[in-house]
From TrEMBL, chains A, B, C, D:
Coiled coil: none annotated. Gene3D superfamilies: Aspartate Aminotransferase, domain 1 (3.90.1150.10), Type I PLP-dependent aspartate aminotransferase-like (Major domain) (3.40.640.10). Belongs to the threonine aldolase family. This is Threonine aldolase. Its cofactor is pyridoxal 5'-phosphate. SUPFAM superfamilies: PLP-dependent transferases. It comes from Candidatus Faecalibacterium intestinavium. Keywords: Pyridoxal phosphate. The keyword Oxidoreductase does not apply.
């Protein structure tokens, strides 16, 4: 079975296992109050060009989103997101379970737009409705699309105009950095908070939440602990981000994933197939005849996305830092044989 | 100022104030454990033909909806509603504040349809998404439309098919009973729980929540107390529903409101104006030239609904048990003068 | 049956019913945005000597406490209260249901002390524990005792020292004002927020929440709505507080209740019985032989408090603005006959 | 620095890192739906003698406690625990943040007793108070004491008598199994749910939650996801528990920790010092002169527990599966030199 199922099917970059083995018995304080975590915080502050940022490591994405959003909002405040946003669909109502409404907006190619944000705010006029207070965007989006720097700057403007916080979910931020024109310093400049995903880009687990706006910083560790996200052996997170932010490794790992995805894309397109959207990142959504999809299932792992018509199926192919070229070649060969 | 602003601008039916005065010093146990409340429970059980029903009195609608929905659902379960449903829009995220997602569906004339329910359930497939567990419908709806008996029966069928609870918000149930073909015994037969609105039909305040499905009944008073809905002088609720359910008063009061609304509707239509939807209940949504709306504002109270085009405004006119015929006449005369 | 069961067994002061009848058809905007509510707000601001205060009317005590505390605290913050405090015991976990821990402290005569507050704060040292952020005290307390002005000033000092908010539950504030040396202007000067109880002092229902600290004021109506506490016919609350704050009626009603309670106390003491605590307010806790308690049950209503020893029972006797002298006399005569 | 600070200062048993390296690129389905997790589930079911048990892996203890307790309780229900219980003190109000009150009871040597449970239930009599529904005990307790099999059976009896669920926090269950007479099959027979701690007994992270009572099982994975506890690379948990439950390794690792602790205990006692309590597990609480404690701080890591008197300090010494004998010897030598 060759898996294009997701970008979290393998363990981690070998350097991480090596670092874990090397530090296994060194003895460290718990709860991310250790030198590895501090060092990794510093590396991330440097990479985003914000020495004043607070960095917190959490284990997973839903946990990070919920902890951040619940910490940022007052009880009656709500978060605006694209209707396809991860928090709207794939977190089992975690945001609502923390007491807050997600205002789901129509998305354009999986992206939240200034127009949608303005419409959402205009529709919430008084105390009989929730009060929109922040926006949530995913870079890259759930369908592999990408916000350009100009788009992120436009979101920042509308947030300034409407008094909204700007939060970015970077579960696949590596892929976005490698494929797009917005850099980590751009995010450090534009966002009020965002997270840098480790799980889907070479770590065993771990997300680095970056708090930029001062009012979001006080007592944040209380929120992490209360929501069950404070890892006892927190240095394990520090060690992983030390490795991911060694040189330009974080972007390089993602660049490989993107490269493999683009080879898939080119090969599939060359066979005459179309796509759900034009993705330049590590998720590709080709539309294939049902018969072909059925035949591929035996040897390849992938997820069903949707049925654009009676005879075709859109599937999701995901590559990762660990995807070998030969897997891509095998898929394209099998597809060619079936076409 | 003649108000068509809403159906809760006046106090209560005179019989209620008389009953309050008559019982003011009689001394009663607190928290609705008094003879008036028990009597009123019995009257309601009788009216719906379900001697096994549990009846609980609460003060207001948002409180009733939140208490019921939060009591019925497990933490990961969600409620399906029309996107125009009161809980989706006008309760300041009260349902989300209790931890639950409202799955907002496209509505047809303000109504939730079996097709929309099926689509919502089909879209929620596994533990990464909330689990749809109940439907919420308003009778009458937020735009004055009405579920027919056949429509309610169809909703019951889809609930049975999909394992969903059927909950009905009866803030304006009186108007629905007076205008439609579904009776209180029909609701007693079809719903798992519903409430009978007092606030908008002659009471000072108060809603009667009816629990029909046995598994929803145990310990329900704990939920009322925890959510701040247990009125110390609970007999005040009992007294009001004793008066509302004296003979057929509950439907008669609403029938008057409907009659006044239909006179408005006929008069407005006779002047050549159209409506947002075809309402046969106590809320009417005429579409008028902006100039006319502006001119009416001086003497009449009403709420803005929407702007269907550049030159027109849709307003909401609401009548109540207390609306005098002369107010209707005055409005129609003013409108005629402006037309 | 002569009731000393509680102070909410009767309806309301007759002036309130008269005012309701007089205004029944006048037509008012909803949700406490009406002239009666505004007038009552002004009367209360004047009575406490704080023209800058925000006043909000809610229906009941548990609702008021939960709405206020949940609005004031960040998710990881906790409220400190005496272990006998209403929020710790008799609100079905409403504060916890809003997400916050109540730190229960040992009480002295039902009162929270500066020493207990300091100990609670000293025991909560880091992010693995909740962060104490406010104190909750009841005036009068759940066992009828009273904070003196000096005690309230000491509480203010410890709050200033430790960065805590000072919140006072005034469900029985009338009784406290009539019996003690702390005035409404004192509360206006010392508290960050408090509420003035209507339900137990002459109203049908209603509590007036007073917000004094500026940071607690913004968007407060959102909290009221979200927690189901925004009464549609909000002017009913305004009308009641207009009547209660007409002249010195609020304190006079409570003074009568206290006077009746003190007559009970004196009469019971004259028969040689002792009390759980020395109460000068409208709740008295005499300790009587079990035999006597049993015999009194036939004609008098009261609540069981505790069993101080095998042969004795402590009962709670509560008087109200409506308690007639003859009820007190009847009780004392019956007790004398049994003694 | 020689650390007796806690039992989570080191990484993991070497076999775990080896297994991670060996499986790093094998490719696995996410979210614990992989063969390693399934195998580890089977090993645990076998070890507890309950083939019908549901096993779920979570990352940490607070997360496991909150997920379980919030899933088991209805909104108005509460959990009974010793006042020193982890959920009452050291989880930043996580249980309250999920909406539930912890009823804190006086503990005997850190243990919850049937008498305390009965008293807690007797004190909660009606819907104005929370409804006690489960008990929480820690094996071993927060101060290193241990429930005997007879004590656990007595707790089961009182739970049966009062209709309570029996939940056991096994963060340090290894130490308890190695030191006491209650076995895993005993827990499988007596508890409704419990968890087997990995973090403090040889794993990098991970706790195995065991659900025994059928009504607690349905849809449990929804709760894990909603509370942010579903690890994307869930097989990492499976791999770790495969290693911990290989033969009798789980108990052996803990037995070593206990042995080191008992050597500390004997050595300290031989020098004439006393202890806070008589612990036979991996946490020891010696009471030492302040001067000695100060002097030890330079070379040894440990936590402050309390000040039993002016001149003495009680410290906590914790050993782990990784504590070398030489660390114990070094501490005892240093203590002897200071004595």
């Amino acid at each position: 079975m060759i898996r294009f199922t997701n970008d979290y099917s393998e363990g981690c970059h070998p350097s991480i296992l090596e670092a874990m083995a090397a530090t296994n018995t060194e003895g460290n304080p718990g709860y991310s109050l250790d030198p590895h975590s501090e060092h990794a915080h510093a590396l991330i502050r440097q990479a985003i060009g914000r020495p004043d940022a607070d960095v917190h490591f959490l284990v997973g994405g839903t946990q990070t989103n919920t902890t951040a959003i619940a910490a940022f909002l007052r009880p009656y405040e709500a978060v605006i997101a694209a209707s396809s946003g991860h928090i709207c669909v794939h977190e089992t109502g975690a945001i609502e379970a923390s007491g807050h409404k997600c205002i789901a907006c129509p998305a354009e190619s999986g992206k939240l737009t200034p127009a949608a944000i303005r419409a959402a705010c205009a529709a919430h006029t008084d105390e009989h409705m929730v009060r929109p207070r922040m926006i949530y965007v995913s870079q890259t989006t759930e369908i592999g699309t990408l916000y350009s720097l100009a788009e992120l700057e436009a979101l920042r403007s509308v947030c300034d105009e409407l008094g909204l916080l700007f939060y970015l979910d970077g579960a696949r931020l590596g892929s976005g950095l490698a494929a797009g024109d917005a850099t980590l310093p751009d995010l450090g400049r534009l966002c009020d908070a965002f997270y840098i995903g480790g799980t889907k880009n070479g770590a065993l687990f771990g997300e680095a939440l970056v708090l930029l706006k001062d009012e979001l910083k006080p007592c944040f560790r209380y929120n992490i602990k209360q929501r069950g996200g404070m890892l006892a052996k927190g240095w394990l997170l520090g060690i992983q981000f030390e490795q991911l932010f060694r040189g330009s490794r974080y972007v390089e790992l993602a660049a490989h994933a993107n490269e493999m995805a683009l080879k898939l894309k080119e090969g599939i397109a060359a066979l005459g197939y179309s796509f759900l959207c034009d993705s330049v990142t590590n998720q590709q959504f080709p539309i294939l005849p049902d018969r072909v999809v059925e035949a591929l299932k035996g040897d390849f792992g992938f997820e069903f996305n949707c049925k654009p018509d009676e005879a075709h199926t859109c599937i999701r192919l995901v590559t990762s830092w660990a995807t070998p070229q030969e897997n891509v070649d095998a898929f394209l060969k099998a597809l060619a044989d079936l076409s």
